[in-house]
Specification:
This protein is mainly α. It is 60% helix and 10% strand. Strands 1-2-3 form a 3-stranded mixed β-sheet. The longest helix is centred in the middle third of the chain and has 30 residues. It is elongated and about 85 Å long.
Length: 313
């Protein structure tokens, strides 16, 4: 058979990963804002003797690094979208970026907890007014970053959204963008806790509030990062797709048909994109393309479907 005759049964494996995502553009904006605020908070923390402010600045520094990993993951996925050595495209690089960001988040939570415990026993003098001012500005910047990353691109969607190529507004499945969003949300939280602790220390003399808020923040960061590690790790390890999707595939094949699915593998290959390998047994089997058409029509998130048909003896 000539090669051109195979074109009807062949397809690309980019699955939209060559598209520039709004999540990437917004991530670069947030990196710039976070890096600038990081430098200012670290300098101010050293100058005003505020460990809370210094810790907040270092926190933002770790997140600027993590966000850089996020942006690189977007760039790498797009750059290699047409590379045939990636069997199912580059969509999982998104999950890898999110997983890496979550590891950094968990690591910083540990450092923050250790530093907070140390501050219980070694308090330092703080220039309260100046430290509070910088912390408030940091909170405003963090709030702006959260707003930039949180579902603000509805007016910029194009026809590619019909194929779900742009998933910035599907942050539950875009683990890369989810990591970036959690980083800036955690920055906002730690800035808020720093402000609260500084006010409590200045006006109520509760100097222990500063390390106590650091421990609370570390606990929250750990909880968020664990959820992201679990979800992104599941994608990287080819965890079976949600039961609702698997049931929909079974219904498309088995309802009103003399057919049963004997083997079913469904896994994520990118944000809201899935691949499936399906083995079907029937007394009088239909052509594989008929089963495939029924399955993909009912489940548009299935980007790559392989069907094996066997006749029951």
């Amino acid at each position: 058979m000539h090669h051109e005759h195979l074109s009807e049964w062949q397809h690309a494996h980019t699955f939209g990963q060559d598209q520039v995502r709004s999540g990437e553009r917004r991530t670069w904006i947030v990196i710039g804002l976070t890096a600038a605020m990081m430098v200012w908070e670290i300098i101010a923390g050293l100058q005003y003797g505020s460990m809370a402010l210094l810790a907040d600045g270092l926190h933002m520094g770790s997140h600027a690094t993590a966000l850089g990993i996020t942006a690189f993951a977007y760039f790498y996925a797009r750059r290699h979208a047409h590379d045939r050595s990636f069997t199912f495209g580059t969509g999982k690089i998104n999950a890898l970026g999110g997983f890496t960001g979550a590891v950094l988040l968990a690591g910083f939570a540990l450092v923050m907890a250790v530093q907070s415990l140390e501050r219980f026993f070694n308090p330092v003098e703080i220039v309260f007014n100046s430290a509070i001012l910088v912390a408030v500005i940091g909170l405003v910047v963090n709030g702006a970053c959260v707003w930039i990353l949180k579902d603000q691109d509805h007016d910029h969607h194009t026809h590619e959204d019909a194929h779900r190529h742009d998933h910035a507004n599907h942050s539950h499945s875009d683990y890369n963008l989810r990591a970036a969003y959690l980083h800036v949300l955690t920055d906002a939280l730690t800035s808020l806790l720093a402000i609260f602790a500084l006010f409590a220390a200045k006006y109520l003399g509760l100097y222990w509030m500063d390390p106590a808020m650091g421990i609370v923040g570390a606990a929250l960061v750990t909880r968020w990062s664990w959820g992201l590690l679990r979800n992104a790790g599941g994608v990287l390890l080819d965890r079976q797709a949600p039961g609702k999707l698997c049931k929909s595939i079974r219904d498309a094949v088995e309802l009103d048909r003399d057919a049963r699915i004997s083997d079913l593998h469904v896994w994520s290959i990118g944000p809201n994109l899935y691949a499936a390998i399906i083995a079907i047994v029937a007394h009088d089997p239909a052509p594989a393309r008929d089963y495939r058409r029924s399955i993909t029509t009912a489940n548009p998130s299935l980007a790559h479907v392989t069907v094996e048909v066997n006749a029951c003896g």
